[in-house]
Amino acid sequence: MPTIKKQALVIGAGTGGYPCAIRLGQLGVDAMLVEKAEPGGVCLNWGCIPSKALISATKLAHKAQHAEHMGLSFGAPTTDMPKMQVWKAGIVSKLTGGVKQLVKGSGTQYVTATAEILGPGRVKLSYPDGKPDDIVECEHLVIATGSVPIEIPGFSVDQDKVRDSTGALELDFVPEHMVCIGGGIIGLELGQTFQRLGTKLTVLEGLDRILSVCDKDLAQVVARQIKQDGGEIVTNAMAKGFSERDGKLWVRAEVGGESKEFPADVVLVAVGRRPVAKGFGLDKLGVELDERGFIKVDARQQTNVAKVYAVGDVCGQPMLAHKASHEGEVVAEVIAGKNTVNDARTIPNVVFTEPEIASAGLGEAEAKQAGHTIEIGKFPFSISGRAMAIDETNGFVKVIIDKSDNRVLGIHVVGPEASDLISEAALAIEMGAFAEDIALTVHPHPTLGEAVMEAAKHALGEAIHVGNRRR
Ligand code: NAI
């Protein structure tokens, strides 16, 4: 088999692998990026981007239907799901095409093939077009193979009646009833998307509340919205299986020890994702996995095997695109001989629900567990002029500080544009800011960002537009 020599090989062109490949090229490392499917991975093809397209389109429809009090009436919208899918696919193809160009532009070779590790520094590439296999000999190997949805017994995913996130994003009709198994990020983001188009939504969550990764007070705002829009949330509900009768699916769940049934036309299974660390020869290198199957890495994304690295979902939580990209860039610098470590203080978390939730830094419970005596500042969007003007007053900003020195520990936003507001919070935490740094930064008026400033002032007992506790 022909042999290609490279300084670095990156397996997987998702949001971990492709930034790594681009950075390697920029740094003058002779690298190759190999991907068996489309460039961009789950995020660009079957996750973040297509879901955000459907979310924004359906939010528009929902908002138009609820604008009468603003003096605007539109009548009932008609939904052309196949057309929405075409629009969404156009965005995806523009972005994935851009990835290939960026990689090539950086000087890194992009190859469509399936990679199999044969042994230390040796990887076989099998091409989809029947071209003879190649062997790549590389000094450095980066594993960026991502994750796949977890399946549960009783719900074999056929991408028709029972769908995972990939299948749900391809729906070309609006189901009358949807049951989401799992009240996590995917279940709620996609569940609310179809709810806004008129689907009756039932969320079955095994734990005692939805969005267990978020602080409770933030998750409650989304739970209220789902119910207000006619949805049902059933907690302590473990989905067990389903049957078909009278043209419906009947999802069976154990709810607090009782067996109950819920009608559905489509079932969305969103119970988490698992790493892809097996099936491509990684075991031949002796790379260590943790008890959940994630590749173990150190602060330089290095595995227990020298010159073998891992980035993104495959090396652990949080399974977020921006975390993967950051790790990919760190690894590229490590390979190029720079003294770089992954020392990010926070990986912000964003949930594109209605309203959006975004967090940076520690939650209330985490901060207390870490031994901090905390002070909390809050500012509700219900009294923000900008939030009123855009008619999105649901939610609040919460700033958690250490009472001893006012250091910002965490900032949490539930409300309009939380996903964009959180970048200021991430910067504050990354820079080790104090509440005063945010409070004394003049924020433009009238903006949603003022709520972050007011919440910081509230934590200090100095808020102008909301009553202060005495400190
Ligand atoms: P998740 O971990 O967020 O939520 C899964 C939920 O399912 C949990 O609350 C769990 O208790 C529940 N569950 C598990 N088994 C169950 C059963 N048999 N019956 C009822 N409930 C059950 O997982 P999800 O939503 O699938 O998302 C996977 C990953 O994708 C997340 O880790 C997230 O980081 C990532 N993601 C991030 C997004 C973002 O940043 N906006 C968007 C979508 C996904």
UniProtKB/TrEMBL annotation:
Protein name: Dihydrolipoyl dehydrogenase
Further information: The active site is a redox-active disulfide bond.
Entry EC number(s): 1.8.1.4
Coiled coil: none
Cofactor note (record): Binds 1 FAD per subunit.
Positions annotated as active site in the UniProt record: 445 (proton acceptor)
Binding-site residues, NAD(+): 182-189, 205, 272
A GO molecular-function descriptor: flavin adenine dinucleotide binding
One annotated GO biological process: 2-oxoglutarate metabolic process
Organism field: Enhygromyxa salina
Annotated S-S bridges: 43-48
Transmembrane residue ranges: none
Protein family according to the UniProt entry: Belongs to the class-I pyridine nucleotide-disulfide oxidoreductase family.
Required cofactor(s): FAD
Residues that hold FAD according to the record: 52, 145-147, 313, 319-322
Taxonomy, superkingdom: Bacteria
Reactions catalysed: N(6)-[(R)-dihydrolipoyl]-L-lysyl-[protein] + NAD(+) = N(6)-[(R)-lipoyl]-L-lysyl-[protein] + NADH + H(+)
Pfam family, one: Pyr_redox_2
Record keyword Flavoprotein present: yes
UniProt entry keywords in alphabetical sequence: Disulfide bond, FAD, Flavoprotein, NAD, Nucleotide-binding, Oxidoreductase, Redox-active center
All residue ranges annotated as the FAD/NAD(P)-binding domain in the record: 7-328
Domain Pyridine nucleotide-disulphide oxidoreductase dimerisation: 347-456
Top EC group: oxidoreductase
